[in-house]
Amino acid sequence: QVYLEQSGGGRVQAGDSLRLTCVAFQRTMSRYSMGWFRQVPGGDRELLATISGDGSRPYYADSVKGRFTISRDISRDATENTIFLQMDSLKLEDTAVYYCGAQINSVTYNVWGQGVKVTVSP
Hints:
With about 120 residues, the chain is an all-beta fold. About 0% of the residues lie in helices and about 50% in strands. It is built from no helices and 11 strands. It is globular.
């Protein structure tokens, strides 16, 4: 069972930056794509950014392109596979619960972190 542990949410002001972290404690995670999503109350989970298993192919939704950056790091012993979401120039509309996800032997994202809340205030 893969477990994704998130950290880094919080309250910031518009224009500030914030970095989210998601760690997967699983040696085989480098085989799988991972990504970041967000969800507002009553809304669908929105795809923000994804990255391939080797970290070479990032993808961004138009809503965050140019402001958010996804990256990936693998520990030397390959037991920790971490993705980051660097969020710059945050806007009020970026307020949401942010989730990391992994695509484990599936065409859809099927493993999720616990979610962290990001609140952007004026």
